[in-house]
Amino acid sequence: MAKKEASTENGFSFTRSASSNARNGLARIQTHTNTPEVCHDDSTPPVRAQTIHDLHSLQKKKSSAPSTPITSSSATSPFSTILEEERQRLQLQSISASLASLTRETGPKVVRGDPASKVVTHHHHDHHYITPTFDASDSALKFTHVLYNLSPAELYEQAIKYEKGSFITATGALATLSGAKTGRSPRDKRVVKDESTEHDLWWGKGSPNIEMDEHTFLINRERAVDYLNSLEKVFVNDQFLNWDPEHRIKVRIVSARAYHSLFMHNMCIRPTPEELEEFGTPDFTIYNAGQFPCNRYTHHMTSSTSIDINIARKEMVILGTQYAGEMKKGLFSVMHYLMPKRNILSLHSGCNMGKNGDVALFFGLSGTGKTTLSTDHNRYLIGDDEHCWSENGVSNIEGGCYAKCVDLSREKEPDIWNAIKFGTVVENVVFDEHTREVDFSDKSVTENTRAAYPIEYIPNAKIPCVAPHPKNVILLACDAFGVLPPVSKLSLAQTMYHFISGYTALVAGTEDGIKEPQATFSACFGAAFIMMHPTKYAAMLAEKMQKHGATGWLVNTGWSGGRYGVGNRIKLAYTRKIIDAIHSGSLLNAEYTKTEVFGLEIPTAIEGVPSEILDPVNTWADKKAYQDTLMKLASLFKKNFNGFISYKIGTDQSLTEEILAAGPTL
pTM for this structure? Predict the structure, then answer.
């Protein structure tokens, strides 16, 4: 029989069996009869919870809702003096109205919170309130859970839990997939043509505005709203556009994906809790039902994708594409209509400001160096893509940046590289399945990989993103023909001509391997987004430049000494010296000569730049080839501009004739 040993330690009786001791070395614990039949670990204080659920409820501290308006003008706001419960009721009422079908008297039943968390976090008389749920498919009977202005951390959780293809990268960014569409669908973007927009907007050849009728829009709106109401939950963002508080636009984005909600959280201006109190009714609403296709039998539909804008209803509907950039650029198009109506110029440009308050605008198509040259560590960044120029100065439209990631490296773009961290959305990138390190050179999903992050992730960003009136307007062109000078000072008429033209040249590969330059023109350096005729924006630009004494510049970041394949690309170091000379004002005081054909004024000397490259004819060994190429490019400019000459600018044709005269002469 096994021998037993008994001992008493700390109030407990330990009985050791020799056999069991030999077997596992563990002691059997027995409680004394005069102690409770429960063992307590007295090494740490007890938690204030009786159940696991109670413990989890203690983990999350309930946010206190703000109650103080931010401005004195809020006294007129319906939300400013209302108790928190009433404010939330009105907020849900507003969201329900946004989601209302046009065929029903009221909107859907909406309730705040994640349907996965059925128990409400607050207590009342020691009872938990259960959020009611229905399995019925009829949207009139079910509750739609609204996830309202969630934080990035909450949106991460939603994406990781419920959206396939969502991962956290090694640097903390959220990697997502945009589905079958990895870029914008410009041929599927439509605008309602009604009595107002028929006269205000640019229609016909060359215009990005594809018309649709009101009835078709309402069919697509109903389809989107019904889809969103059929879901168990939707994400709602209430945010702002335009950092100028005097001309701020309130936008509401209703979407089905955490990815889309986080994207817009980054790209729009994020309201403070106090600003949300008085948000009220939005000025514009997006219904993003991109996971659901449009009906291809519907009039005007040419595919399963449709991005529809209705200016009169202040609404935008997205069907059949999950590419988040459609929301960003859709709102930019809307701003290209709303702002000029207020005599504010909307611009597809970068913007930075020197330490002395001198402001420069940068225009340029893809590949011209707009992002690289507008990002200057010696200057403050106002914004990288979308701006307004009002009587108050320049303001960024957005609250974030949407940067290309293809072949991104720490050495080439350190600011963008360092911005890809927690809170940033990276779209369609490829990463190591174990380390989650992103390979930005991998184009397996698409070449159009992107990162969306708040602008404050850029160290030298100026917050708020507003600045005085610009002193310099820089038009960038990557001329692969090699005949435009590295820099030219433009007259006002020349600035308008080249602004309307929006020229750059791409290098397109042919099947047999021969590569030739291909001229590309995009009116106002953003034809895909403008709503009115290009001459409208050009006239506004000229008016503001003249009023505030801004100078126009044409900077060629392309080739010198011959076209692509013969000459060499102008060194970035030289271009930076040119930009520095523009910023400092020294280039205004330089001596100038005028070129033939294009009639451009070029400086004879710039510090740090070889003088021989300033006039392109000096760099070409074959002068006849230079002349032929110059005439070829001039004819391409003329051909492109023929589409604009029928439009009258101003009260008479004098301004139109002045702009035409500023173009090249053959």
Answer: 0.84
